[in-house]
Specification:
12 helices
């Protein structure tokens, strides 16, 4: 009998792409909804592989899903998976580290421009019959302003290239990237407090870790200039959204552009009602092309593991040694 793949809470219209990849390999594909480890176990007790987006996978899952060989993460980050437990159990974890390298930086720049040029505010005013440019004041020229990047991986580097024509002066905070490497890309390395104090716009591109969780808390936001703008297309938990709301309401920040929030969807959080905040529904990754690439890539890597081969995008490489 063939193997079974269970896609948990995938969020796509269907699984046609995955089914096509697995069709000729006698692999059954099933889908389920699960928001807890216990629910994952209930839905996938017989699974040989899991395809997940946001579902948690930890020791409870590894202890109960006995035939589990591989977990495919729809995306880049793997913070919902207990990698130590996966490696101990010999379960491979694969992700898709390069599927939205154009889309996320583009979305970050789009949020930046929407906030800086008051696009949402103007649009809402025009819909009510108003035709008054002063409702967006103050708006500042972008050329010569400082763009601060929290994290300097590939996504942040592409943001720098995309905003170059606007004339920003880029600086970046990333303890894991050298000053020389940043300088090679025309970016000045700064400490975190320097990033906060000097930036007119801060764009977040850091992974979610114990170090970065609520990195932008009340104290950090208070250290930023009151005319500064915060953009986050990374992970919602990196920004304390309650503190951000207070900073926007109190005039301690001029605006924010958010594609991610600590709770998604945000239920009734008041930040969604602020004119100074432009919020999109975790859509920065999305284009039709990136969605196809994402789904096909993760399915093909799961199939490689089934066939005893090393996947193209292993997260816990120790499993294959």
């Amino acid at each position: 009998m063939g193997q079974t793949v269970v896609a948990v809470g995938h969020g796509f219209p269907d699984l046609s792409i995955e089914r096509k990849v697995f069709a000729e390999a006698d692999v059954a594909v099933r889908e389920a909804e699960a928001e807890t480890e216990e629910a994952v176990v209930e839905a996938a007790r017989d699974a040989d592989a899991l395809l997940i987006q946001h579902a948690p996978v930890g020791r409870t899952v590894f202890g109960a899903v006995e035939n589990l060989e591989v977990i495919g993460r729809y995306g880049i980050g793997v913070d919902t998976i207990d990698l130590d437990a996966a490696t101990e159990e010999g379960v491979a974890v694969v992700n898709v580290p390069d599927y939205c390298l154009d889309e996320v930086p583009t979305h970050a720049v789009a949020l930046l421009l929407a906030v800086e040029r008051r696009i949402a505010r103007y649009d809402a005013e025009v819909e009510t019959g108003s035709w008054d440019w002063t409702t967006g004041r103050p708006i500042y020229r972008l050329r010569g302003r400082t763009l601060g990047l929290a994290g300097f991986g590939e996504l942040a580097r592409r943001v720098v290239r995309k905003v170059e024509p606007f004339g920003f002066e880029p600086i970046a905070y990333d303890p894991y990237v050298s000053a020389d490497e940043m300088a090679d890309r025309g970016v000045e390395k700064v400490p975190f407090d320097g990033l906060l104090e000097r930036s007119d716009v801060v764009s977040v591109h850091a992974p979610l870790t114990d170090e970065t969780r609520t990195l932008f808390d009340g104290d950090a936001l208070a250290a930023m200039d009151e005319e500064a703008v915060l953009i986050n297309t990374s992970r919602g938990e990196i920004v304390d959204v309650d503190a951000l709301y207070d900073a926007l309401v109190d005039g301690e920040l001029r605006g924010a552009g958010l594609d991610v929030l600590p709770e998604e969807p945000p239920s009734d959080h008041p930040i969604v009602e602020l004119d100074s905040a432009v919020i999109t529904p975790h859509a920065a990754w999305y284009s039709e092309e990136s969605m196809v690439q994402l789904r096909r890539t993760v399915a093909e890597d799961v199939l490689r593991v089934f066939r005893g081969r090393v996947p193209k995008n292993p997260v816990n490489e120790a499993v294959f040694r």
